[in-house]
Design goal:
The protein contains 16 helices and 22 strands. It is α/β, with parallel strands linked by helices.
Length: 528
């Protein structure tokens, strides 16, 4: 008995027709939550679904492993949701269980499960019969369910899934993901038990599971356009746009906004290296103000300073930026690069400390960002001297945050820099390493000096993050003296009497030597 056979609106003839043609079930019974209209499948989806629900003489699935690979925005997640519901409702039988798995970078609720919930809520036939919970969709008539599970192989051991869904398998890059994949192998105790994968390409050498499945699938005989099948596997892999919304305008927009490697991976669905040039030099040149240069001094200008330090090998860089509210852009104010050697290590006191002290004298320095691992002793001396030092450990999350921020600033033309050969060479030598959190700046060769770009990224990140925080204004209190009148902000309504001496406390500045005062208006019986 299938779950949908228990629905009041489905008779045995209709059930038989839907089982023979699952595409008809999807297009007649399932409603898109986005436009409220029945789903209309494209040819590639129809062919995949037709092969997905082929059965052998024993009533078992011919292809218990199914992989649908397509470029970004091909509604792969929705298709996974449609296939999940179709499997559970038409073919799962009583006590059917589908597990929707979150990848390494998602939380417990995978996007595919959210898609299932939305489709059920939008489809009247299903909504009447289903119970939607935070992490589970239940069909009480047959005690079938669709459950979202976290990427935790220990919590799923011993399960008997009808279908296990792995959406965006490229994101399964850790060992726990591989172990979960192994735990959710199709089980022989169910006639219908399968694994479904939807994804676009990943990175070469990272997340090998998807790449292994890709290589296995490409070795199978072709049974349709971009579709291969055999040896228990159904494999679809397309490099072309499949839907009308993936038009030339969108493709051109993606080519403008994405790095070349990212475009190949997400828009052409090709495996690429996770390393690429950090910035297109044409984008960097657009950020250069040909008439600009380092600013000498402006005591009213708020700036954020960052230091990337090294003692013997790498260069050390100090960079200052500000946030220009007139243009809403980050502006490079000044930079210094120091190159130590093994024979002549860097003298932090004569280089970094001196430079930061000078910047504090020339500008309104709001903060000096530094890695405590590199220069804790220097920071302590500068802190005692009044410099606003702020720790910024160069952890992977922090490096990714500053790298992604700098990339967006340069790509969007929101950084203003001045012409400088050292800066341009450092930018050209930077590569971007993509992590699940974003982009991290790195260098291709150990001899390359990119510390000034790391310092620029730290400073620009601080300028963006902190420029929108308004400083708290210190308001001087106002007092009233019978002798001097109202006092406040260092002013009195009448001239101070002879013999007064200026102090650090405004209310004392206008109290003569014979004056009688209380420490605060209203705090005592004396008047002043």
């Amino acid at each position: 008995m299938s779950a949908i056979a228990a629905f009041d609106d489905i008779d045995s003839l209709m059930l038989a027709r839907y089982r023979a043609d699952p595409c008809a079930f999807i297009e007649e019974c399932l409603i898109s939550p986005y436009d409220g209209q029945p789903y209309r499948l494209i040819d590639a989806e129809r062919r995949f679904i037709k092969f997905a629900f082929q059965f052998d003489d024993d009533g078992r699935l011919v292809h218990p492993l199914m992989l649908y690979g397509a470029i970004k925005k091909s509604r792969k997640t929705e298709l996974a949701g449609l296939l999940t519901l179709t499997t559970v409702l038409l073919f799962g039988g009583k006590f059917a269980e589908a597990f929707v798995v979150a990848n390494d970078e998602q939380q417990a609720i995978a996007r595919c499960f959210t898609a299932c919930c939305r489709i059920v809520a939008a489809s009247p036939l299903l909504k009447r019969e289903a119970v939607i919970m935070a992490d589970k969709i239940g069909f009480p008539a047959t005690q079938s369910s669709i459950t979202a599970i976290a990427n935790d192989y220990t919590g799923i051991a011993g399960g008997h899934p009808t279908l296990s869904v792995f959406d965006e398998l490229w994101g399964f890059v850790h060992e726990r993901g591989r172990r979960l994949w192994d735990e959710l192998v199709p089980v022989p105790s169910r006639r219908v038990s399968a694994r479904l994968v939807t994804s676009h390409a990943g990175f070469e050498g990272e997340g090998m599971l998807l790449q292994e499945l890709y290589e296995r699938g490409m070795a199978l005989p072709e049974v349709g356009p971009d579709l291969r099948a055999g040896d228990g596997m159904l494999f679809f892999w397309s490099h072309q746009p499949l839907h009308h919304w993936q038009d030339d305008k969108w493709l051109k927009q993606m080519r403008r906004e994405l790095r070349p490697n990212q475009y190949l991976r997400m828009i052409e669905n090709r495996f690429t290296s996770n390393e690429a040039a950090f910035i297109d030099m044409a984008d960097w040149r657009k950020c250069i103000d040909p008439n600009g240069g380092p600013l000498v001094a402006d005591k009213t200008l708020p700036v954020w300073v960052a230091v990337d330090a090294s003692v013997k090998r790498d260069s050390t860089a100090v960079v200052a930026t500000t946030f220009d509210r007139n243009t809403n852009k980050v502006r490079l104010i000044a930079h210094r690069i120091f190159q130590p050697s093994t024979k002549e290590p860097l003298d932090f006191e004569q280089t970094i400390e001196r430079t930061i002290r000078e910047l504090c004298q020339r500008f309104k320095v709001r903060a000096v960002y530094y890695d405590p691992y590199q220069m804790m002793a220097v920071a302590q001396r500068l802190q005692k001297a009044g410099a606003p030092m702020k720790e910024f450990p160069q952890t992977l999350p922090n490096l990714t945050a500053i790298g992604s921020n700098l990339f967006e600033l340069i790509k969007g033309g929101n950084l203003i820099a001045y012409p400088n050969n050292e800066l341009q060479l450092a930018v050209a030598r930077c590569i971007a390493v993509e992590t699940p959190r974003g982009w991290r700046i790195a260098k291709e060769k150990a001899a390359h000096r990119i510390d000034v770009i790391v310092a620029l990224a730290m400073s620009a990140f601080a300028a963006i993050e902190r420029s929108h925080v308004q400083p708290v204004k210190i308001v001087s209190p106002i007092f009233y003296s019978k002798q001097l009148g109202w006092l406040g902000d260092g002013q009195a309504s009448t001239p101070p009497p002879p013999g007064y001496q200026r102090t650090q406390e405004p209310w004392r500045d206008f109290v003569g030597p014979d004056a009688v005062y209380s420490h605060w208006p209203g705090s005592g019986p004396k008047e002043w």
